[in-house]
Amino acid sequence: xxxxxxxxxxxxxxxxAMGKTQSDFAEIAAAAGVPGATRQSQAKYEKGLASPSxxxxxxxxxxxxxxxxxxxxxxEGPPPLVLTAEEKTLLSYFQSASAEIRKxxxxxxxxxxxxxxxxxxxxxxxxxxxDIAGRxxxxxxxxx
Length: 144
Prior knowledge:
Strand order of the largest sheet: 1-2
Order of helices and strands: HHHHHHHEE
Number of domains: 2
Distance between the termini: 72 Å
Shape: elongated
Structural class: mainly alpha
Helix content: 40-55%
Largest sheet: 2 strands, antiparallel
Number of strands: 2
CATH architecture of the largest domain: Orthogonal Bundle
CATH superfamily of the largest domain: lambda repressor-like DNA-binding domains
């Protein structure tokens, strides 16, 4: 049936997006106790020759497969974020950095993004005693 073919195509798409093989998915299902989970059954699902069971779908959902998409063609939540190689590298370095380095990196990026400032900005400084002092800074021509 055509519905099984489209389910199979989306199942294959999800599997490949995760970088998994048909054998990997069969092992996931088998480890969850799904009867008859083999590479051959996975191939039949993907070709639309067989319909995956609820137990199988539950097992792969636990591994991050968007089962709603597999069954209906509609994604659960927003579309997946696609990062460039440069963005992946930046994120990797950011995630492994200390809190201090992360703060500096964010400051550099935010500062670079807003090279011109107009309007009012409040600056607060925390004193060692725990007191907070603040002042308004106005840029862009106006006085406060």
